[in-house]
Amino acid sequence: MVESDWPQVWPIVEEVTAARETFPFDPGWTAEVAHAVWVESPPGLTVVAVDGPTVLGTAKMGPNRPGPGSHVATASFMTASAARGRGVGRALCEFAIDWATRQGYSAMQFNAVVETNVGAVRLYEDLGFQIIGTVPQAYDHARLGRVGLHVMHRFL
């Protein structure tokens, strides 16, 4: 991602976050706060998926934890609503797995996959991730109330 992508990334982040159905970010964040959280500094990376000049989705990846936990990567993904169902999320996730492997990480872990986000859970499982635990009622879903957050993991 280059800085000039942010004006197209921000509406995706804003839309996904405001829906309060799939992503554990504060829907009250400003564009500046979201930028500071979403755009990774090295050794992390933030990328976009594009169709010509149009940003369809975005991902961020990097170490899951610093120091002794830095051999495990993590990643997060968001797709524009108009681009869902077109393989954008899969392409971003496959890119993140490949990137983490090339960077020498030994595994990848997702810390907060909303259990009712069945499309994402199915995709991650299809790509080799396993649910290793669920934190009960850890996410306040806009329509369903409190639902669990899965921790998902795979070795690279």
Folded structure, characterized:
This protein has 156 residues and is of the alpha+beta class. It has a single domain (3-155), classed as 3-Layer(aba) Sandwich (Aminopeptidase). The chain is 29% helix and 36% strand. The chain is built from 4 helices and 6 strands. The chain has a 6-stranded mixed β-sheet with strand order 1-2-3-4-6-5. The longest helix has 15 residues, at 88-102. The mean pLDDT is 97.
Sequence-ordered SSE layout with sheet pairings:
Layout: H1 6-19, H2 31-38, E1 45-51, E2 54-63, E3 72-79, H3 88-102, E4 107-114, H4 118-126, E5 130-141, E6 145-155
Shape: globular
Got a strand count?
Answer: 6
Succession of helices and strands? HHEEEHEHEE
Please indicate the count of domains: 1
The CATH H-level homologous superfamily: Gcn5-related N-acetyltransferase (GNAT)
Which parts are unreliable, with pLDDT below 50 for 5 consecutive residues or more?
Answer: none
Alpha-beta content class? alpha+beta
Give structural attributes.
156 residues, alpha+beta, Aminopeptidase, six-stranded mixed beta sheet, 4 helices, 6 strands, 29% helix
Brief summary of the model shown:
By secondary structure, the protein is an alpha+beta fold. The chain has helices spanning 6-19, 31-38, 88-102, 118-126; strands at residues 45-51, 54-63, 72-79, 107-114, 130-141, 145-155.
